Amino acid sequence: MKHLPARLVAIAAAVALSATGCALQQDSGNTVEVVVGYQSKTINTVTAGTLLKAKGYLEQRLSQLTKDGGPKYHVTWQDYDTGAPITAQMVAEKIDIGSMGDYPLLINGSRTQANERAKTEFVSVTGYQPRGSLNMIVVKPDSTVQSVAELAGKKLSSSVGSASDGLLRQALSRNNIDPKSGAEVLNQQPQIGATALESGQVQALSQFVAWPGLLVFQNRAKALFDGGELNVPTFHGVVARRDYTRQHPEVLDAFLQAQLDATDFLHQQPLAAAQTVADSAGLAPEVVYLYNGPGGTSFDTPLKPQLIQAFKGDVPYLKSIGDFADLDIDKFVDDGPLRKVYNERSLNYDAAVANFANPAPITGTDPVTGAPVTDPAHASELWLDGQNTTQPAADPTSLLRAVQQARAQGKKVRAAYVPDAELGTRWFADKAIWLRDGATYLPFTTPAGAQRYTAQHPGAVAVSYDQAVTEVRA
């Protein structure tokens, strides 16, 4: 680590985990070492992490290079809870390619730029959400807190430097609460924060996917604030050490090809992909499918202008959490390798960049109404137990009818998904807050969303999920 300034050496030593499986700067004999850092439970990075690893796409691509006369390749996968240790290992030149969320990407770019051998480039997106609905603030199921404004003076949990920390700071600021002095924020790993919430040590938990959905699914929390309220795109992406990829451009090319392979598989076989990720990450398939299924996260690799613009808007966050070097986003972002991969596949990169719609919406025919499912803002989905396919619903009201029919037939509902009526966030139907407005039923992720609707529609009435299922008319 003699190439690193003393300050960065200290950071790397403090945060980095064991260096087993470290990348070699020189080839070991005839074998090129490839070290990939990923987060198995951060499921919006699965196409560059959990799913990619489980399906073996990268190893297959590299094996083909060997068959074509190239050297042998050896891939080491290192799993972390957050992006911070991946960055620390990249600073120490021990990880070659990594994936993480937008705020960790900022820190990664800032921390690695001081050393030419550690310097990284942002080369692809794994998934994004146009409004920022990937992350949430949750509270205990019996909490009386109804809004972020009520968190003033409270003890909160988040992971500093993560996307969840950025969400929390923005949410507090928008509610006139100083993130530094208006509340006590504990810097905790997601699982530690979840335990702290459950035990009452903190009054709210801000976390990135899949933690909010997981805790709500397990009845250990309920949603308080939906990141979609910020209406700022959030995303996860891939960074690569430039020194390594200049030496082995074929490895980055193979990685991006493999990421596209994983993305195609997720789009074509979403349930199978969700089960694969669930098995590998130790998560409930229903939770994985909430985010990875149609209408959830937009899994699309191009570096789109809306995302880069949002990324530039996040730069001040670096100064708010410490002494970080300025980051030139335009120099950090490099879409050249991905453009090359698109050309190799005869795909139109510019057309893909221009399309900001979810590439995998819920489609099909609503079996209750017989109508085609065409509106992503209302499309819903039902997953019945024992079935390896799901059925679409044109809107949440129709989904309630489908659930009613399934219950009448003695069928068990494994999961039902609906879009928030205001923000479009894909959410569990049985965990949503429901309003009945005439003959229409509207789901919301948070009390605040439902309150905003009733303020404009005083005739709307709150109903429970089971009440809605029982009374909805066929």
Automatic annotation (TrEMBL):
<feature type="signal peptide">
    <location>
        <begin position="1"/>
        <end position="25"/>
    </location>
</feature>
<dbReference type="InterPro" id="IPR015168">
    <property type="entry name" value="SsuA/THI5"/>
</dbReference>
<protein>
    <submittedName>
        <fullName>ABC transporter substrate-binding protein</fullName>
    </submittedName>
</protein>
<feature type="domain" description="SsuA/THI5-like">
    <location>
        <begin position="133"/>
        <end position="272"/>
    </location>
</feature>
<dbReference type="Pfam" id="PF09084">
    <property type="entry name" value="NMT1"/>
</dbReference>
<keyword id="KW-0732">Signal</keyword>
